[in-house]
């Protein structure tokens, strides 16, 4: 569903991401984790078609993002960590606008369903400046889900949500995966990653250091057995990793 091959991104002389290759199948939730500056946002923005790769290729639902950008983008949704909304459109108008952009034919019943799922019904006529940070985040996610994307890209999706909102958001993400959406979730919240993700992609300084299920990663690094995800993260991304070569840590690469 999402295929990345040799993705590399340079900013001038800075190598932000180097030769990243991975696959996310329908129903998979891939946790993209790494320290600050590791290249997670750069990777998500490339997958969303916002950043052009320096080299490599990306396909969504079998459609090449560089040669057919509009068709590929029509199959995905990218929810950035900062919600991008229109100040003069109400909550409902946002969804109606997105429905027209993406040609969603059943928007009339879908919009109230999504507003209910994301607990926005009471705010359906509000403008973004009247919404809290968490409500803005929920609206951005509702807009992303309206066209039933085949690939869902989420950058820190829980920012600003209250405990009930967090639980509902986790259910929303898990429900989309059960329906066959390929999900990539980038977060520093390792408990979220552990709970929702079927596989992990750990990057450090733009390079992949581990890919696979936790079991696959542990089988490539037996010294990580019995460790918490936080301890694994520190061992995989710290400067003093015990086995030296980052490439030796990669497991289950697609
Ligand atoms: N527009 C840009 N111009 C130059 N360098 C950039 C630009 N955007 C990102 N970088 C650099 O690319 C590298 C990867 O940054 P990126 O934002 O992808 O990291 P990240 O993993 O998302 O970090 P964080 O967890 O802090 O959000 C960093 O070294 C960063 O300084």
UniProtKB/TrEMBL annotation:
Pfam families, sorted: ABC_tran (PF00005)
Keyword Lyase carried by entry: no
SUPFAM superfamilies documented for this protein: P-loop containing nucleoside triphosphate hydrolases
InterPro entries reported for this sequence: AAA+_ATPase (IPR003593), ABC_transporter-like_ATP-bd (IPR003439), ABC_Transporter_VariousFunc (IPR051782), P-loop_NTPase (IPR027417)
Domain ABC transporter: start-end pairs: 2-230
SMART domains in UniProt: AAA (SM00382)
Molecular function terms, GO-annotated: ATP binding; ATP hydrolysis activity
Matching Gene3D superfamilies: P-loop containing nucleotide triphosphate hydrolases (3.40.50.300)
Entry keyword set: ATP-binding, Nucleotide-binding, Transport
Keyword ATP-binding set for record: yes
PANTHER family, sorted: ABC TRANSPORTER ATP-BINDING PROTEIN ALBC-RELATED
Protein name: ABC transporter ATP-binding protein
Native organism: Gemmatimonas phototrophica
């Amino acid at each position: 569903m999402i295929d990345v091959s040799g993705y590399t991104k340079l900013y001038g002389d800075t190598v932000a991401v180097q030769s990243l290759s991975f696959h996310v199948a329908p129903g998979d939730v891939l946790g993209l984790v790494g320290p600050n500056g590791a290249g997670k946002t750069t990777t998500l923005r490339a997958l969303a078609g916002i950043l052009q790769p320096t080299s490599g290729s990306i396909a969504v639902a079998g459609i090449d993002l560089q040669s057919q950008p509009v068709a590929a983008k029509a199959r995905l949704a990218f929810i950035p960590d900062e919600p991008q909304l229109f100040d003069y459109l109400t909550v409902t108008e946002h969804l109606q606008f997105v429905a027209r952009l993406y040609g969603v034919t059943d928007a009339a019943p879908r919009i109230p369903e999504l507003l209910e799922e994301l607990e926005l019904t009471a705010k359906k006529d509000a403008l973004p400046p009247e919404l809290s940070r968490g409500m803005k985040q929920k609206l951005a996610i509702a807009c992303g889900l309206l066209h039933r994307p085949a690939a869902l890209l989420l950058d820190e999706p829980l920012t600003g949500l209250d405990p009930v909102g967090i639980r509902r958001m986790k259910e929303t993400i898990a429900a989309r995966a059960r329906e066959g959406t390929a999900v990539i979730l980038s977060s520093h919240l390792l408990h979220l990653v552990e709970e929702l993700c079927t596989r992990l992609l750990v990057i450090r300084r733009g390079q992949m250091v581990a890919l696979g299920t936790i079991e696959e990663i542990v089988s490539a690094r037996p010294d990580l057995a019995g460790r918490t995800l936080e301890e694994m993260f520190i061992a995989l991304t710290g400067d003093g990793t015990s086995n030296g070569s980052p490439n030796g840590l990669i497991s289950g690469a697609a």
